[in-house]
Amino acid sequence: MRTRLLVAGLAGATLLAMSPAQAADYNTITSFDGTPITFYWFPAVGLAPGQTAPTVLQGPGFGGQAQSNPEATSGGPVPGVGSLRQAGYNVLTWNPRGISPSGGEAMLDNPDYEGRDVQALIDWVGQQPQAQLDAPGDPRVGMTGGSYGGGIQLSTAAIDTRLDAIVPVIAWNSLTTSLYKAATIKTAWVNVLMAGATRPGNTFSPRILKGREQARKGMTFSDSVVEFARSAGPNQYLPGIETPTFIIQGTVDNLFPPSEAIANYRQLQLYAGVPLKMTWYCGGHGFCLTSDGSTSVALEQTWAWLDKYLKGNAAVDTGPAFTWVDQKGTYRSAATFPRPQRWEKATGAGTLALKAKGGSGPYTGPLPEGVNPLTAVLLRNTIPTPAKKAVSVPVKVARESVILGAPKLTVTYSGTTKSKKVRVLAQLVDVGNKEVLGHQITPVPLRLNGKKHTVKVPLEAVSAALSKGQKLTLQIVAQSSAYNVFPKGGSVTFSKVRIALPAVQ
Fold first, then answer.
1. Which pLDDT value is given to residue 18?
2. Of the candidates 21, 19, 27, which has an alpha carbon nearest to the alpha carbon of residue 197?
3. H-state helical runs in 268-351
4. To the nearest whole number, what is the mean pLDDT of the chain?
């Protein structure tokens, strides 16, 4: 198998030094509040005078700049500018507010700021002779892009019904659940994102910078930072979306885990009722060990979605509503996100010393070529590994199973510690290949006052095909390089640990 790091996301271009050569002059518009927003305009290939085409807007990852290469090919599941133009689409790429040479301060894809900026860009598209119009001021327009470029699609669709199709890739549902689950900062990823994004000329809201400092110093965000993150949605804005939406997420994405995509899918399904599709591929903000071909399925489905809902080709078959890949590279599909048919269960017990060593991560294996040394150090901290010191619960699979969704963890425990706030972390380890399943690790809040307590926690969602008799291990650890958790001694005794894995087949 070939190892690949797929960070087509929040700071992908910045992290992997893949920014294209400047190959076009940029334009500037003035947004609603006077902020200058810079962008590139690339008409579709082969348009004759008087001919028009639908338009695709494509945003960059967090802190990254607009794609400026008119010939750029596809990057993972995101179509490249050149590929879109050859397929008959105009393309507009832009530098979000706060990202030089645009002005203003980055506000984390807030509909009231970045969303209104995109509205101004759509207004501009509606005035171009190459743009196909549905009505005056209403261009035929869709959006693609990954991570920050994915989140902005949901934020824009929530406030602008002119969008005809969106394809958000490796986006989030809530920054509070993805970056701050169980009130625990995902420190390693915060460090990666800010290291990649804080280039000269970029300007961020003071609350973003405050959050970075809080991540460095402790395990708690202030109320103002949490509220700022919450305002970026898009979870609270999804009921307003009327745009056909194709969600693409990575199975080994441990920044915005598959649980974030599930939340988006279910909310859109419940409240919006729009044409809806979701696909999981092996990648995202994560480390993929699956063989080649996993991104091609999502890319092909993206083309079909754009052709049907943006070009208006009703004959195009966009395929099943949900497609996903397991850890072996096998794709499956369903008419909707499936509910568990049964649960693979196991129980155990044990005592965990709250020590700052011997936990999960950092990863020490190979990383892709071309990653600078600083970035490599930061990325290694995001990847969980089997722990040396843990409470371990063996899980022996009773029969051949397809596991999909969030495992359920229930622990009954007691203990004491000097720490004011206690978090342990839970992960599932494949005993055969010694990898953490889906590269997912979940913080579990505890209250250690000498009394017995019980807590139930859904773990991050995973996708795995398991054979009969296959062995997994649930590990509960005191420390992980992915999180800013610093135990100060003491111990916790788990009198009962129960794990249940959702089996859909």
1. 31
2. 19
3. 294-309
4. 91
Give backbone dihedrals phi and psi of 220, rounded to 5 degrees, phi first: -135, 135
Distances (CA, A) of 182 to 3, 177, 334, 443: 31, 8, 31, 6
As a dihedral over the C-alpha atoms of residue 156, residue 24, residue 83, residue 45, rounded to 10 degrees, the angle is 100
The kind and range of the H/E element at 405 are strand 401-405
pLDDT band for position 266 (50/70/90)?
very high
Q: Tell me the CA end-to-end span of the chain in Å, nearest whole number.
A: 26
Q: pTM value? A: 0.94
Task: Tokens for 372, please give them.
Answer: 């600078």
Please return the burial class of 449, using the count of CB atoms within 10 Å of its CB with bins 0-12, 13-18 and 19+.
exposed
Same fold, 8-334 and 342-503: no
What are the residue ranges spanned by the domains of the chain?
8-334, 342-503
Are the CB atoms for 459 and 475 separated by under 8 Å?
Answer: no
Rg (alpha carbons) of the chain, rounded to whole number: 23
- The DSSP secondary structure of 109-139, one letter per residue, reads S-IIIIIHHHHHHHHHHTT-TTB-EEETTEE
pLDDT confidence of residue 292: 53
Contacts of 135-141 with CB under 8 Å at 24 or more apart are: 138/162, 139/54, 139/55, 140/54, 140/55, 140/164, 140/310, 140/312, 141/54, 141/55, 141/56, 141/57, 141/310
pLDDT at position 2 over 60: no
Neighbouring-strand partners of residue 234: 174
Nearest to residue 150, comparing CAs of 168, 166, 130?
A: 168
Arch. (CATH architecture) of 8-334? 3-Layer(aba) Sandwich (3.40)
Provide the 10 A C-beta neighbour count for residue 319: 15
pLDDT reading at 10 higher than 60: no
pLDDT at res. 373: 79
What pLDDT digit, counting tens, does each position of 95-130 carry? 999 999 999 999 999 999 999 999 999 999 999 999
> Dihedral sign, CA of 371, 377, 381, 385?
positive
Sign of CA dihedral 19, 196, 189, 384: positive
pLDDT tens readout for residues 149-182: 999 999 999 999 999 999 999 999 999 999 999 9
pLDDT one-digit tens code per residue, 289-321:
765 557 899 999 999 999 999 999 999 999 999
Pick the CATH number of 342-503 from 3.40.50.150, 3.40.50.2300, 3.40.50.720, 2.60.120.260: 2.60.120.260
Distance CA 204, CA 190 (A): 14
Separation CA 60–CA 173 (nearest Å): 18
Coil, strand or helix: which one is 179? coil
- What is the per-residue pLDDT for 291? 58
Residue 22 pLDDT greater than 60, yes or no:
no
